[in-house]
Task: inverse folding
């Protein structure tokens, strides 16, 4: 496993008093994050349910409205997020191998990619808002024939908006991890926060993996 | 002494000795951390449980006062002291407060937080800091809601149906945001309980020996994590509907109001099981202890909690029979609703069988459970009756529904909660309360409750609609009986508050195990020490094995480094702490 | 330390490249005319494969306790129940008056 000093291996200052050992604590934290992931799936699931109900009622609406979404930039964002999943997995690997510098670098890259995602999102949104494609009452675009076009875009803004909030939270979490990593909190015997933030981040990626074809690639 | 498990379980030997619980402890969790700041920043599950107790008692008082306001206004059909708009706000608040701020949290956050680690032999829940965060999230949600009340009120009913809720004035957004925030408290409690039950069990505590109280809390936590997020997104969408007019639920904007109801009830039906299933857990504990008998049908009761959790997710449309659903959906939901009564019925029969030929001791906790069995059965039956499509067409939105849910929620859940409070009060505070006053209060509550809600069944079946500010002459005697009953019930609750608080000051010292239970929480001092046990408990029997001597329930690991002599060696299934 | 599977860098890159490739396929498939509703089925199927790769090999479910996988499976089951039963209503309504 780790090739670095035995001193790091024996660091047990992270074990909380109600746990028997470090492994029990780690496995508990992981299970707790998976339970939380269940709640996220159900929360986004509600939005997907609204999407499905309306698509079943008005398939032609989705077909028409989706042309306003830029599949190219949506695709770029997909590559960006998948890349960030790779780098966060590499960050965890670095922590497991006690390579704290590698951990920090990989976290920085992940943050960079996440910011790229948000920048592209910013341009997508501002482009639409300039045309009058806004959520709900503020929708004023008349380039689409379907009278329920505002509903498609309400769903679009809710789904991508909530997803974007989750990306932002993820960025915040990873910045916090960098701060902690620089303070030498993490080592091969304790990297639990990195692990569970990684799980959260992969979930954010998975949600986008479904959002992309369902919103951008309706042909 | 080893139980017969499946042959692929590995066993390990543990050196044990008997650890008798300390009587009349000098130091315990209430005095080991001193001062207000220690309480506000505590991560001790027991103190967090007590802080929740204070909070929900406050909300129960508020919700109860609102109920009395409603019932007083309904003394005559004419306006008494509330006008119609105000009346609508009062019943909205009564419902929202009672459901979200009292019933949903009550058992899990108070009794669950306090007792769960004790019953597992653990030092705390898996995530103590998250537990404290759950409490503060509850407080913040409560503050939002109180602000909503003070800044314009809400008159949509606790169900917030669209399009009215999306377009009406008032502080709907503030209240929905308050409940949204509260939902996270519920979710985080669920996360904590699931991981704690999986990971923090004492040596020898296999799933087959888990107290039924914990099976119930486990099933409840599963419901919490699956259902509450859907409420969260529904309330978020409603808020966006008001703020931005997104139009998913408002027909004026091209949306569908029935879709709102689907999303709302997908949470709110399982929510009623979040409310009652922990109560079922309490019932199992109390019936076994006060019958001095092993529970009948352990696995039936354990697995029926899980069955209720699952089937409970499939029936939400029975709240929407008259809303404009397709007939196909109506029929499917009606059929599934009949199914959901079965696991509950199984529990009732198993509880009765437990009492049969038991040595029944009708102390206060048991008294409340007997009341529970009677009232909850009525409530449950009437629920099935409402589940019949053709019958519901007439009874939907009448007082029949109001009576049904009060029988299950108050007659069921609140009675079970009171039973639990009376059962575990000596453990939590080391004090005994007056049995005499407890019986008097129970009588007031039982009589008052039936007087309040029995007439409502009759009224409802004769057509009295719910949420109505006035009514026709023929219903007045029923309304008046109901109002008198409500006041009698209120007196009962006040008596409880009085003697419980009195017990804290002047009560007799309770021993570690006043009820003679075999369960693990009774094998430590009352009140317990800060870290629950002074040893690591070792479990060799099930929690309802009254035929085994008490000494076998007080075993703990005797390790050389704490200088304790081993008295015996036991063989227990190897539940390694890292594995689920 | 048990239960801490460490993937090689090569392996992680391999999964990432598979995901990039599948993303390209996701887009390429829209250039072919597939009749409704199969075009949606294909898009979802590809997304499911990508999600599985992330779940199993980035989130390490392949090497982890089975209970964690069970948790995720259950979340999907209940999500499917939510949409399935809701659609039993929304797709089978008979309009008493024509929709506007």
Result:
């Amino acid at each position: 496993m780790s090739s670095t000093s035995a001193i790091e291996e024996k660091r047990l200052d992270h074990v909380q008093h109600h746990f028997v050992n470090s492994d029990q604590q780690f496995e508990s934290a992981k299970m707790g994050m998976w339970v939380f992931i269940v709640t996220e799936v159900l929360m986004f699931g509600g939005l997907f349910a609204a999407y499905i109900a309306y698509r079943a009622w008005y398939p032609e609406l989705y077909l028409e409205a989706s042309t306003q979404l830029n599949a190219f930039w949506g695709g770029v964002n997909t590559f960006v997020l998948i890349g960030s999943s790779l780098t966060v997995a590499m960050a965890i690997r670095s922590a497991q191998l006690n390579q704290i510098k590698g951990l920090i670098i990989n976290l920085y890259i992940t943050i960079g990619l996440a910011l790229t995602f948000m920048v592209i999102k910013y341009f997508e949104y501002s482009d639409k808002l300039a045309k009058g494609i806004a959520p709900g009452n503020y929708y004023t675009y008349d380039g689409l024939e379907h009278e329920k076009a505002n509903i498609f875009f309400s769903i679009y803004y809710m789904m991508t908006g909530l997803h974007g909030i989750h990306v932002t939270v993820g960025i915040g979490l990873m910045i916090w991890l960098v701060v902690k990593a620089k303070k030498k909190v993490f080592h091969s015997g304790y990297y639990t926060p990195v692990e569970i933030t990684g799980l959260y981040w992969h979930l954010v990626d998975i949600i986008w993996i479904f959002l992309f074809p369902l919103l951008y690639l309706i042909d | 002494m080893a139980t017969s498990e499946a042959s692929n379980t590995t066993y390990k030997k543990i050196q044990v000795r008997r650890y008798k619980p300390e009587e009349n402890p000098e130091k315990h969790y209430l005095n080991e951390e001193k001062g207000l700041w220690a309480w506000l920043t505590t991560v001790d599950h027991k103190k967090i449980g007590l802080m929740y107790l204070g909070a929900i008692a406050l909300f129960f008082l508020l919700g109860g006062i609102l109920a009395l306001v409603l019932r007083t206004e309904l003394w005559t059909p004419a306006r008494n002291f509330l006008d119609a708009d105000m009346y609508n706000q009062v019943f909205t608040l009564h419902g929202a407060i009672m459901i979200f701020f009292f019933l949903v949290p009550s058992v899990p956050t108070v009794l669950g937080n306090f007792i769960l680690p004790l019953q597992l032999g653990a030092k705390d829940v898996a995530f103590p800091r998250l537990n404290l965060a759950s409490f503060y999230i509850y407080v913040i949600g409560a503050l939002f809601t109180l602000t909503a009340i003070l800044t314009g009120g809400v008159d949509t009913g606790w169900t917030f149906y669209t399009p009215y809720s999306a377009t009406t004035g008032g502080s709907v957004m503030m209240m929905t945001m308050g409940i949204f925030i509260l939902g996270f408290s519920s979710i985080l409690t669920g996360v904590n309980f699931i991981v704690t039950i999986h990971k923090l069990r004492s040596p020898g505590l296999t799933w087959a020996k888990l107290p039924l109280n914990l099976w119930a809390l486990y099933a409840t936590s599963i419901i919490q994590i699956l259902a509450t997020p859907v409420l969260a997104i529904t309330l978020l969408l409603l808020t966006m509907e008001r703020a931005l007019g997104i139009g998913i639920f408002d027909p004026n904007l091209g949306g569908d109001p029935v879709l709102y109801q689907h999303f709302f009830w997908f949470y709110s039906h399982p929510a009623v099981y979040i409310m009652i299933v922990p109560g079922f857990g309490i019932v199992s504990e109390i019936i076994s202890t006060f019958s001095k008998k092993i529970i009948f049908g352990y696995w039936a009761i354990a697995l029926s909690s899980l069955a209720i959790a699952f089937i409970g997710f499939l029936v939400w449309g029975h709240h929407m029979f008259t809303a404009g659903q397709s007939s196909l959906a109506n029929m499917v939901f009606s059929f599934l609703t009949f199914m959901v009564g079965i696991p509950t019925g199984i529990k009732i029969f198993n509880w009765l069988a437990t009492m049969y030929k038991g040595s029944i001791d009708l102390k206060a906790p048991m008294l409340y459970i007997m009341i529970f069995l009677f009232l909850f059965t009525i409530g449950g039956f009437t629920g099935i009756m409402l589940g019949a499509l053709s019958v519901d067409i007439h009874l939907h939105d009448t007082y029949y529904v109001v009576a049904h849910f009060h029988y299950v929620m108050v007659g069921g859940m609140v009675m079970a909660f009171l039973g639990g409070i009376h059962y575990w009060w000596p453990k939590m505070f080391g004090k005994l309360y007056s049995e005499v006053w407890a019986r008097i209060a129970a009588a007031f509550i039982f009589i008052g409750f039936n007087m309040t809600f029995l007439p409502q069944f009759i009224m409802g079946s004769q057509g009295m609609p719910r949420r109505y500010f006035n009514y026709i002459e023929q219903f007045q005697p029923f309304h008046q009986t109901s109002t008198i009953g409500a006041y009698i019930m209120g007196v009962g609750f006040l008596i409880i508050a009085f003697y419980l608080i009195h017990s804290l000051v002047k009560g007799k010292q309770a021993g570690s195990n006043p009820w003679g239970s075999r369960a693990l929480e009774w094998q430590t001092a009352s009140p317990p020490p800060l870290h629950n046990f002074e040893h690591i408990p070792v479990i060799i029997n099930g929690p309802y094995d009254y035929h085994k001597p008490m000494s076998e329930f007080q075993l703990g690991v005797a390790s050389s480094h704490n200088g304790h002599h081993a008295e015996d060696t036991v063989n227990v299934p190897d539940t390694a702490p890292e594995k689920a | 330390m048990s239960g801490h599977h460490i993937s090689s860098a090569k392996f992680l890159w391999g999964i990432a490249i598979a995901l990039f490739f599948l993303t390209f396929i996701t887009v390429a498939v829209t250039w072919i005319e597939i009749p409704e509703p199969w075009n949606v089925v294909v898009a979802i199927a590809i997304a499911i494969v990508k999600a599985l790769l992330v779940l199993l090999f980035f989130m390490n479910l392949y090497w982890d306790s089975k209970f964690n996988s069970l948790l995720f499976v259950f979340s999907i089951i209940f999500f499917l129940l939510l949409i399935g039963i809701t659609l039993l209503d929304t797709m089978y309504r008979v309009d008493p008056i024509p929709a506007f």
Q: What stands out?
A: Chain A has seven helices and no strands. Chain A touches chain B at residues 16-21, 23-24, 27-28, 31-32, 35-36, 38-47, 49-50, 53-54, 135-138, 147-148, 150-151, 154-155, 157-158, 162 (CB under 8 Å).
